[in-house]
Amino acid sequence: MREQAEIREQYEFLCEQLDSEEMNHDRVRMMLTHYRRALGWVLEEEHM
Question: Domain of life of the organism in this record (predicted)?
Answer without folding.
Answer: Archaea
